[in-house]
Amino acid sequence: MDKLHALDSFAALSQPTRLEVFRLLIMAGEVGMSAGEISDTLGVRQNTMSANLAILARSGLVRNERQGRNIRYFADMDGLRGLLAYLLEDCCGGSPALCQPFIDELACVCNESVVAKDDAAK
Q1: Rounded to two decimals, what is the model's pTM?
Q2: Which of 27, 64, 71, 109 is paired with 47 by a 20 to 30 Å CA distance?
Q3: HTH arsR-type domain location, by residue (predicted)?
Q4: What is the pLDDT of residues 73-119, one digit of tens each?
Q5: d(CA 90, CA 74)
Q6: Rg (CA), the chain
């Protein structure tokens, strides 16, 4: 990812509704959500939601798939990975061992969220 693409991603996430949408889609995982489901969950009008989803899609943080007559939206994990890699590209002056605690903490937070969701589903 280059600097301009990273700036597009940050610009997309700098608006409160779009940040909420992105976090919601991350939580939805592989199931994704339709624009209507996202609108209903966040209490946002559908035409406003469509505009926000388009901005997130252009930034590379959200992707969509047509499923019959519906379109489902998903967090684009490759886009997120690219943004995080860009941010950490020069982490700790080229000494990966110094960044490892941060990476471990990030992984633990993600794993705790997955475990909490699994426990809630049971």
Answers
A1: 0.79
A2: 27
A3: 1-95
A4: 999 999 998 998 888 777 777 777 777 777 777 765 555 554 455 55
A5: 29
A6: 16
CA distance 97 to 112: 23
CB 46 within 8 A of CB 35: yes
Written as one letter, the residue type at 29 is G
- With tokens 């890699």, the residue in question is 85
Report domain extents, the chain.
3-89, 90-122
- Which SS3 state, helix, strand or coil, does residue 122 take? coil
- Beta sheet of 70-75, edge-to-edge order: 33-34, 70-75, 62-67
Residue bearing tokens 């959500």: 33
Q: What residues pair up with 73 in beta bridges, in sequence order?
A: 33, 64
Residue 26 one-letter amino acid: I
| Interatomic CA distance for residues 112 and 109, integer angstroms | 5
Tokens of residue 27, six digits: 């939580």
